[in-house]
């Protein structure tokens, strides 16, 4: 099962040491934006999600670039864990233009925590603290619409999530979408003006009348396959929810569902163990619209296969390697983005410089086999 390997990965990560960073490299030139109707803004305060153009656009007609497993970092705080999927934390990602943050949530001793499969393997802290940091960022950036996607691994109740959202202060920004099939969502500008600019999708919950801002993910969103180990393996088939699995996205979008493209590649270490593949990030996170395995190619393919409807969301690993945010700009047809901040070691603002992580075939790879033996021995002793 695709999720199970993360437990082994996290254990390996703790034993394998650290991932070395290679020198920076230049990103390829961006592919042409479908349209650019507005000149660069002279007043970032009038922008929505870094662009004046997006203020008049309904939420369901915007493509949001997202950080997959955004809470699980490959940095000094985790010993450069091989299980980490991102180099930048949530607020740095938001600074750089990411507007979708995905994370796994577990219920540990009555508390909702951000854990990569198991809390005793990789624990990124409490959900409340994470939400509080995002809330603080949103208060400092009052014209930004942010989406959260929380994988509810232990099937905690909507009431459990509501309590944490309220304690963090972020619930007051929650947005309640229109009924499925009832037409377009609110424009980003209206969401900003009304102060309801946080969209929260959660898996494995039932709707809660007292917390209508907590949206069961698969009532409104469909996803493409999320386990890809071949760079030519990205496709646009509906993988989840189960009732739509195996079908095309066109019918789903016609029903008002929002399409999410999973675009991250793993590398297999053994039959049952895989980790994020950093060796191919230069291609996988590329804005090229013609290269096999590139993010730009994948999103353009899905737009074609879904009857011309652009994906609403895309999830990537190590978003600051490559021009991932610029791919969303191209999908949205904007060239007037402003106000983004480049993360340390990268350049999300213009994509001209990126920091490349060492791949599993590099320095880290030389430590993996020994770490794997030790880790598997530990597992057998449990």
Automatic annotation (TrEMBL):
According to its UniProt entry, one GO biological process term is:
lipid metabolic process
Q: Where is the composition biased (Low complexity)?
A: 25-44
Query: Which stretch is the leader sequence?
Result: 1-21
UniProt xrefs under InterPro entries: PI-PLC_domain, PLC-like_Pdiesterase_TIM-brl
Instruction: State the Gene Ontology terms under molecular function.
Output: phosphoric diester hydrolase activity
| Chain residue ranges for the region called Disordered | 25-46
| Pfam families, per database record | PI-PLC_X
Protein keywords: Signal
| Coiled coil spans | none
The protein, known as: PI-PLC X domain-containing protein
């Amino acid at each position: 099962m695709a999720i199970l390997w993360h437990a082994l990965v996290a254990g390996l990560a703790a034993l394998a040491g650290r991932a070395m960073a290679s020198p920076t490299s230049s990103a390829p030139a961006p592919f042409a934006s479908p349209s650019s109707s507005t000149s660069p803004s002279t007043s970032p305060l009038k922008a929505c999600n870094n662009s004046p153009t997006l203020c008049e656009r309904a939420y369901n007609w915007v493509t949001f670039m997202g950080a997959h497993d955004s809470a699980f970092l490959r940095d000094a705080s985790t010993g450069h864990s091989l299980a980490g999927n991102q180099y930048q934390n949530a607020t740095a990602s938001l600074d750089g233009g990411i507007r979708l943050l995905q994370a796994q949530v577990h219920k540990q001793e009555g508390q909702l925590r951000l854990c990569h499969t198991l809390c005793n393997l990789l624990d990124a802290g409490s959900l409340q603290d994470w939400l509080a940091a995002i809330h603080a960022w949103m208060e400092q950036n009052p014209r930004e619409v942010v989406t959260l996607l929380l994988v509810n691994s232990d099937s905690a109740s909507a009431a459990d999530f509501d309590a944490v959202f309220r304690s963090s202060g972020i619930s007051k920004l929650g947005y309640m979408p229109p009924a499925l099939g009832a037409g377009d969502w609110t424009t980003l500008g209206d969401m900003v003006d009304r102060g309801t600019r946080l969209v929260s999708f959660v898996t494995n919950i039932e709707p809660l009348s007292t917390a209508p801002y907590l949206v069961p993910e698969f009532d409104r969103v469909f996803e493409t396959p999320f386990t890809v180990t071949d760079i030519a393996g990205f496709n646009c088939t509906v993988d989840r929810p189960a009732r739509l699995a195996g079908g095309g996205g066109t019918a789903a979008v016609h029903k008002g569902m929002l399409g999410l493209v999973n675009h991250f590649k793993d590398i297999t270490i053994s039959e049952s163990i895989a980790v994020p593949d950093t060796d191919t990030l230069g291609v996988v996170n590329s804005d090229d619209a013609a290269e096999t395995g590139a993010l730009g190619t994948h999103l353009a393919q899905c737009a074609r296969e879904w009857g011309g409807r652009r994906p609403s969301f895309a999830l990537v690993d190590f978003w600051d390697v490559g021009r991932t945010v610029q791919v969303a700009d191209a999908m949205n047809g904007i060239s007037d983005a402003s106000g983004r901040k480049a993360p340390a070691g990268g350049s999300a603002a213009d994509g001209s410089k990126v920091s490349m992580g060492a791949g599993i075939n590099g320095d880290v790879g030389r430590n993996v086999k020994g770490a794997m033996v030790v880790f598997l021995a530990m597992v057998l002793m449990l």
